[in-house]
Amino acid sequence: MKKIKLNTQIILFLVVVALWIFLAVSSEYFLTYSNIKNIMRQMAIQGVLAVGMVMIIITAGIDLSVGSVVALVNIMLSKMLANHFSIPLAILIVLIVSTSVGLINGIVIYDFGVPAFIATLAMMTIARGTTLLISGGSNVFGLPRSIANFASSDFLGIPSLFWFLIITVIVAEIILRKTRFGKYIYALGSNPEAARLSGINLRLVTYGVYALGGFLWGVGGVLETTRLWMGVPTTGTGYELDAIAAAVLGGASLFGAEGSALGAFFGALVMITIYNGAVLLNINPFWQRIIVGIILVVIVAIDQFRKKRSKD
Amino acid sequence: MLNEYAIQLKGISKYFPGVQALKNVNFSLKFGEVKALIGENGAGKSTLIKILTGAYSADEGEIYVFNQMIEKMTPIISEKLGISAVYQNLVLAPHLTVAENIFLNKLPSKWSFVSKSSLIKKAKEVLKRLEYHEIIDPNEKVKNLSVAHQGIVAIARAISKNAKIVIFDEPTSVLTSKETEELFRIISELKKSNVSIIYISHRLEEIFEICDKAYVLKDGEFVIEKDIEDTNEDELISYMVGRKLKRNFYISKEIGKEILRVENVKNKKLKDCSLSLFEGEIVGLYGLVGSGRTELARAIFGADKIDSGKVYIGGKLKYISNTLTAINNRLSLIPEDRRNQGLALKLSVKENINLPIYRKISKLGFINSRIEKETALKYVKKLDIKTPDIYKTVQNLSGGNQQKVVIAKWLASNAKIFIMDEPTNGVDVGAKEEIYSIMNELAKNGAAILFISSYMPELMGICDRILVMNSGKIVANIPREEYDEEKILAYAIKTAKFEEVDSK
């Protein structure tokens, strides 16, 4: 009998299938078209953030400012739209802002030598503080109806929001596999000194990966705004942890050089399935996070065990 | 008769997925005996040692230590029995001090508070046994020490445990000849106090200096055990590799134009270094660890800053302020520490080889994967890199093949000036020979090689001339006709002031 080589993605895929079968049997509503679309909408934002996070994690970095940047974008965009800015212009502005925030993270990390954990922890509180300042701590209303319509709209039978995730995953996979920048991301994560001695400009790679992250937090913030149809200064809390969890579930190693966008996608899918299933099965929502935590530990432990065995 | 053996391993076999690492191996070690364990990489030496120290458990066979059968060997039992090992890849905690590293698992303490003064005192005693108490400060953090001094710390840790059986795994690969002599002195002291020693080294002449017996493994099987008086290097090598090995690799080459000139380069570690390399030349750079060899290599390559001085390539003044400029000027550096500086271990053979040339083989950022693959295949074939395929991560390759990947990387980048810092460090005899012939091949085709090594015989065996460094300066330039081991060593050790030498 031919031995099937289990990799992280396949294990994760099996977990998803098992969860889906279980839920399909337990709840007749689970496999309905409207619930699947619901899952897709819930997953879109988290998936986009997880893809940005996995690229940063591959460089052996981390970004904790995700949730705060999502909130900053949400508030800025809501304020502008409530004041009748043109929608494309407002979106362009917030994406420039979020990308710049990411670039600043990169500069602080590379040029000032601040560890990524600390640099982005600082950015997390700075961005949150700015959000609260701009909003005065209160929600922003009065956004155009078209914004909310977009969140519930479909394109080719699939929620429009989910298309953003599909495109993000495809583009990120192409970057990681097919481009020079992608190879440099893995090289930086595996061994920065070897990369430097191979003539790679680590400054640009660091700037690039955090700026790209910032851009995706911006996309996440825009999508969040369409779903909320208002500005909520406290939104996004804990999103960075969900993104890290999804990336790690998908096979990323915090030591760098391991992980993929597709893995992050499946990681996010596992988490969303659990959240969705818990609601359908009427499980106390407080249990959701406990279950996700347990699954995270179990899957990573299995993965480590598997790697250790293949090494011996 | 009963108490003659410190260790007896009987019929040991160990199977790993895909390989039979050890096959029915018997090994014994008497009290106060120094036994060399030799064989090519992959012969099973490490596996045997790991079984003895309890890191692996054997599939079959029995382990006797001091005539007592050990049912299940574990690292803890092994340490209790007084077995300790000094590994090639030093296992130290870089952020802790020398003293803390020496006593890591038995810090002297009162009510679990570490007593710092007694820790320092005890560390000094151990270092004194090695006569390093005035050279290494027990309060220094290990990461600030040179590689050689880190080796001394590892040895200090091993002997601090009152070990009865000490295993040295390639201890001299980072040491210069002077430091190696120190190590031999330490080993003979240990032997006098009836400690048994297993000595693993690729440098066979060392074995003849300090070992009583040589035990040869090949492909996981026992080949032969010989009294050291009854054998010679060539014989042992033929047992190890199954064929004869050359020692002199020198070939005469056509020396061309000057390709690299370094003038008065200075920085923190370098005091005014000048040298020249010509096309077709292999130039040795000898010096003790800490003499500034590695720093000079890194400075020329633009990896470290220089404060003043000029670098000419092909007669033109170049400002090499970063590694990319160096690479564009066809320079290359094969760094001292292959695993930490030379390779991205988690990436594949293909990616490591292409790393310096991704910018050349991509358009609008997209890599031409056909060229990427062809380049990798070409150099894997050319350098005979032993890997199942080009998609394997380099961490799975042997030391010699890893080093060949580093060389392949620079061949792919079309380098013409090769700075090789200890390129044969920790690679086995066969692979060494291959690296030498690659160097000759390169030089024959007009490349210039600066070959840095702590191991004088290999420099004398292949170089056209040898530069000697001492305290940040190049103090001698010795042509092939004037090679003399003692003279070179004298230049490297002496602290006297040297006149400026013309190193052309």
What can you tell me about this protein's structure?
- The complex is a heterodimer of chains A (312) and B (504).
- With 312 residues, chain A is mainly α.
- Chain A has helices spanning 8-26, 33-58, 66-82, 87-110, 116-135, 145-152, 160-178, 180-190, 192-197, 202-228, 239-249, 261-280, 285-311; strands at residues 154-155, 158-159.
- In chain A, helix 1 (8-26) packs parallel to helix 12 (261-280), helix 4 (87-110) packs antiparallel against helix 10 and helix 8 packs across helix 10.
- The longest helix of chain A has 27 residues, at 202-228.
- With 504 residues, chain B is α/β, with parallel strands linked by helices.
- Chain B is built from 17 helices and 24 strands.
- In chain B, the strands form 6 sheets. Chain B has a 6-stranded mixed β-sheet with strand order 6-9-10-3-11-12, sandwiched between helices.
- The N and C termini of chain B lie far apart (63 Å).
- Residues 496-504 of chain B have low confidence and may be disordered.
- The A-B interface holds A 178-181, 183-184, 186-187, 189-191, 193-201, 256-258, 310, 312 and B 16-17, 56, 301, 303, 322-324, 326-328, 333, 335, 340-347, 351, 354-356, 358-359, 362, 365-367, 369, 409, 413.
Overall geometric form of chain B: globular
List the quaternary state of the chains. Answer: heterodimer
Overall 3D shape of chain A: globular
Q: Care to count the β-strands of chain A?
A: 2
How much of the sequence lies in strands of chain B comes to: 25-35%
Structural class of chain A, by secondary structure, is mainly alpha
**Beta-strand percentage range of chain A:** under 5%
Helices and strands, with pairings:
The complex is a heterodimer of chains A (312) and B (504).
Chain A: H1 8-26, H2 33-58, H3 66-82, H4 87-110, H5 116-135, H6 145-152, E1 154-155, E2 158-159, H7 160-178, H8 180-190, H9 192-197, H10 202-228, H11 239-249, H12 261-280, H13 285-311
Antiparallel strand pairs in A: 1-2
Helix pairs in contact in A: 1-12, 2-7, 2-8, 2-10, 2-11, 2-12, 3-4, 3-5, 3-10, 4-5, 4-10, 6-10, 7-8, 8-10, 11-12, 12-13
Chain B: E1 5-16, E2 19-30, E3 34-38, H1 45-52, E4 60-65, E5 68-70, H2 75-80, E6 83-86, H3 98-102, E7 109-110, E8 113-114, H4 116-129, H5 147-160, E9 165-169, H6 177-192, E10 196-200, H7 204-210, E11 213-218, E12 221-227, H8 233-241, E13 258-266, E14 273-278, E15 282-286, H9 293-300, E16 308-313, E17 316-318, H10 323-328, E18 331-334, H11 338-342, H12 349-354, E19 362-363, E20 366-367, H13 369-382, H14 399-412, E21 417-421, H15 429-444, E22 448-453, H16 456-462, E23 465-470, E24 473-479, H17 485-493
Parallel strand pairs in B: 3-10, 3-11, 6-9, 9-10, 15-22, 15-23, 18-21, 21-22
Antiparallel strand pairs in B: 1-2, 1-4, 4-5, 7-8, 11-12, 13-14, 13-16, 16-17, 19-20, 23-24
